[in-house]
């Protein structure tokens, strides 16, 4: 009676899985937000001329890049309550989602800081000199001249990181948070698990659709902005 | 009035400025010539502290400072009295032509937007780019970009405009349009210090020509004195090698 593979079940499962989509997006967006803030701080530390500050920032990034995100999630989930307990705070009642957001903020900040740092350095040194020569101070130079140009340079790489972040959120089911992948797993377990392949294909479509939207937004932005900022030709 | 006394600058072990004295009076156009490595660009960049000189004194207008102990505030003061035109133009890529010219006025001098716009339009008209207000630098030719750079400097009405090889990166055909703008502002009385290889320009526009080599001033004088009656051997050598006049 039942087929081995039921294509219609894929489309049947998608709306069910999508009920967890708000949570997936919530984790992704908040992690991105905090990751950007922390990433900015790391970038500033890396650009400073102080070897101690540099080493702290680079050491942090090296650790994050050198360990699997799933492992980092476990370290935060199991380790943070213990660390915080030692100074007398009990966070065992915290929603598990918080641990996920903390992990992915810390994780993405490392990669974001590298993207921001290279974008900052890619801005032509003459821009800074021109700004200084008309009497701008350091803050004005950075905020009005360098960062606007660095941002445009960074956007394609930022887009890649955002997509990576989206996919990393799928790890949260290991700590019992039901995101879209977790939901797919649950639905797939119904009916003795015969429809697992269909639900996983279904959730794959959802990830893919969101990635497409993100990519489209990035390329729209690039299209609108980069034509003006073509690298200066000496003369043409 | 700009005066530099006994300026020294080393890059690592390489002493690039070996004790130069320079005085520029209001309305003068001083052209600095010399081979690569003579220190002429470094000298210019030390004036607005894009390079930090090791030793010496600088006075511009009412501001008197030493290079070594200049405070951030003093450096800003100096920069607000000078403007620079760069070899690679260095226009703000993310801003339009008019925004480029207005930026120094609105952000640095706190001039109200309307007034800044008016001044900027006047300056752009002076350099012949009234029809390009809303263009981005990437949409302009090199000569046009450099003229915007000059307008940007003019808008600030500085004590002196420093020109760092303004035409060196330009197609030969575009050099003329920039030089004629420079001639125009020179005849209007702007004080200018120009590092250039354009000998004919120096002959035509300079009030004074300085020949630098190896970190010192070898000879200085009027264009007539330098080009037609050089006294120093090294000056004669240089002029012979660059025979373009």
Gist of the model:
Chain A has 236 residues and is an all-alpha fold. Helices cover 75% and strands 0% of the residues of chain A.
Textual characterization of the structure:
- The complex is a heterodimer of chains A (236) and B (245).
- Chain A is mainly α.
- Chain A is 75% helix and 0% strand.
- In chain A, helix 8 runs antiparallel to helix 9.
- Chain A starts with 6 loop residues before the first helix and ends in an 11-residue tail after the last helix.
- The C terminus of chain A is likely disordered.
- Chain B contains nine helices and ten strands.
- In chain B, the strands form two sheets. Chain B has a six-stranded mixed β-sheet, sandwiched between helices.
- In chain B, strand 4 and strand 5 form a beta hairpin.
- Chain B starts with a strand and ends with a helix.
- The model of chain B has no long low-confidence stretch (mean pLDDT 92).
- At the A-B interface, helix 6 and helix 7 of A face helix 2, strand 6, helix 3 and helix 5 of B.
Q: Class by helix and strand content of chain B?
A: alpha/beta
Low-confidence stretches of chain B: none
Contiguous helical run count of chain A: 9
The number of distinct β-strands of chain A equals: 0
* Secondary-structure element series of chain A: HHHHHHHHH
CA(first)-CA(last) distance of chain B: 31 Å
Portion in strands of chain A: under 5%
Fourth CATH level, the homologous superfamily of chain A = MetI-like
Average pLDDT for all residues of chain A: 90
CATH hierarchy class name of chain A:
Mainly Alpha
Order of helices and strands of chain B: EEEHEEHEHHHEHEHEEHH
Most extensive chain contact? Answer: A-B, 28 and 38 residues
Uncertain ranges of chain A = 231-236
Radius of gyration of chain B: 18 Å
Identify the quaternary structure here.
heterodimer
Q: Do you know the CATH architecture of chain A?
A: Orthogonal Bundle
CATH fold description of chain A: MetI-like fold
Q: Major beta sheet of chain B, specifics?
A: 6 strands, mixed
Count of discrete domains of chain A: 1
What does the largest sheet of chain A look like? none
Number of helices of chain B: 9
